[in-house]
Amino acid sequence: MDIPVDFHYDEVNFYDEQESGEPPAPLGALAYLKGSFDGTGLNTIFRPNCGPPPLGTKFHRPVSPVPPTFPSDNVLELNLTADHITFSSRSLGRVPNRGFGSQNDITLNGVSYVQHVNDMTNVKTGLGNKPKPTGIHFETGLWMNIPATNVNPVLNESLTRMGSIPHGTTINAQCLFPTSTQDGPPNILPVSIKPFAEGNIHEKVHGIHSLHVDKKNTPRLPQDLTKFIATGTINQAILDDPNTVLRTAIEGLNITETITFAVSTEPPAPEFGGGTANIAFLNGTPGATNPNAHINKMKAQFWIEKVQWPLEIPVYKPGQAPLQISPKNARSGLPTPVFQVSPPYEITKPRTITAPAILIQYSQVVFMTFDQITWPHISVSTLAPSDPIPVPDSVWS
Predict the structure, then answer these.
(1) CA dist., res. 15 & res. 334, Å (int)
(2) φ, ψ for residue 240 (rounded to 5)?
(3) Quick one: which H or E segment has residue 236?
(4) Which top-level group of life is the source organism from (predicted)?
(5) Contact, 66 vs 312, CB < 8 A?
(6) Which helix (H) or strand (E) is 254 found in, with range?
(7) How far apart are CA 154 and CA 274, in angstroms?
(8) What is the pLDDT of residue 52?
C-alpha cells in the first residue's frame, strides 16, 4: 500500500497562490521505516474453544475435560512465523490538524504500512519450514509523528500507530517520542503469556496445562512439541518468555546503537489518547459483558538496531556487475540483509569490510478477554531489509 507518486498531503490552496514549497513535516524515528522488511518470529494466542468437534477445535489426542469445560474452553496456538512488512517509500507530507482557541495548528507526517504474517510451523520437522504457508495475520495502517504542543494538550512530541485487523479490531496506539536511544544492543526484558483474572494482572490463572511443553494431551496446537524441543524452536524457556526468540536472533551481532519506543492503546501518563474498537461479534454483548474475544488493550515495543555487518569481498575488477553478498555471520533461519557491492577499485585478493544496515525487532501483546479471563496474545519478530542494500562509498576509504 504505497503512497501514489502524485499524492502529497498539504493544506488546500483556494486562492491560486504559489505553492509554499515547504518540506514535509518531520518523521523522527519513523524515517527508518521505509521499504520492505522480511523476518521470522513466534506467535502465541489463546483462543476460545466453543465445544468438542465438530463445534470446536479438533485435536489428534483427546483432551480432558471435554470442551468447553475449563480449562479446555481455550486453545493455545503456537506459530513459527514468516513476517513481511512494507512501509511506503514516501511519507504523507504535511497533514494539518487544527487547534481550537489558544492552541495553534500542528502538522503531522507519517508512513503507511502493510503487514502479513504466515504460519510456517512444520510438525514433521519441528522447524519453521512448512511447505505451504498459511496466512494468520494481515494488517494495514499508518505510523504518524505528532509534534509537541504546549497549550491543549501540553504534550511532548509523540508517535502513534493506527492499524486495522481483519478479525474486527482497530487500534490507535501512542507513545512519547522514542523513549530511549542507546549505544549497543537493546535490553529486551521478559514477557509472560500466562493468563490472569480480568482486571487484575497480578492474579494469575492456574491449571493451564498447555503452558507446559512436556504435556501432549492438552488443548494446544501443536499438542506434541517433542520435535520443536529438539530443534530449539519451541521449548519451555521460550514458552515462559517469548522474548527469548528476540534475544537469540541478535546474539553475536555488532549492534552499535538501538532506538527503542513502546506504543500502547492505554499509554502511561503524561501521554493519553488512543484505544481499541471491536466489532459486535468480538464484544458479544453491549458493553462486552460476555465477549467471544474482546480486545481491550494492545501494547508493543519496537527496537530499531543499527548493525555493522562483516562482508567478505572476493576478487573483483571495475566494470563487473555489482556483487550481492550475505554477511559472514549470517545464520540459517535468522533474518539477515543482503548487500549490493560495487568496489570503486580492483580487489586483487579477498578482503573483509563492514557495512551498516538496520534490523527491526518487536514484541507485541494483545490483551484478549473471554470467560472473565484476560489471555495475553504475544507476537515477536526480527526483520531485515528485503532488498539488497548498496554499500556506501565510505567503507572503502
Answers:
(1) 55
(2) -70, -30
(3) helix 236-240
(4) Eukaryota
(5) no
(6) strand 254-264
(7) 16
(8) 84
Residue 359's nearest CA partner among 380, 340, 383, 338 is: 383
Q: Residue 145 carries which side chain, given as an amino acid letter? A: N
Give the model confidence (pLDDT) of 340-388 as tens digits.
999 999 999 999 999 999 999 999 999 999 999 999 999 999 999 999 9
CA-angle at 376, arms to 371 and 377, nearest 5°: 110
CATH assignment of the domain containing 254: 2.40.128.20
Tell me the residue type at 260: T
21: pLDDT strictly greater than 80: no
DSSP string, 58-90: --SS--SSPTTSTTSSEEEEEEEEEEEEEE-SS
For the segment 140-161, the average pLDDT, to the nearest whole number, is: 94
Amino acid identity of residue 212, one-letter, is H
> Residue 316 carries which DSSP code?
B
271 within a domain of the structure (yes/no): yes
CA angle 79, 80, 85 (to 5 degrees): 100
Total count of domains within the chain: 1
Q: Is the dihedral of CA 142, 274, 96, 166 positive or negative?
A: positive
Cα gap 114→87, rounded to integer Å: 7
**CB 151 within 8 Å of CB 103:** yes
- Write phi, then psi, for 211 (nearest 5 degrees): -80, -5
Task: Note if the pTM is more than 0.85.
Answer: yes
Grid coordinates representing 354? Answer: 563492514
Q: Are strands 149-150 and 154-155 parallel, antiparallel or unpaired?
A: antiparallel
Does residue 237 contact residue 244 with C-beta atoms inside 8 Å?
A: yes
The residue written with cell numbers 494466542 in the block is 45
Question: Residue written as cell 495475553?
Answer: 376
Q: Which domain, by its residues, includes 157?
A: 28-311+361-390
What is the mean pLDDT of the segment spanning 177-183? 83
Q: Which has the closest alpha carbon to 371: 71, 148, 146, 7?
A: 71
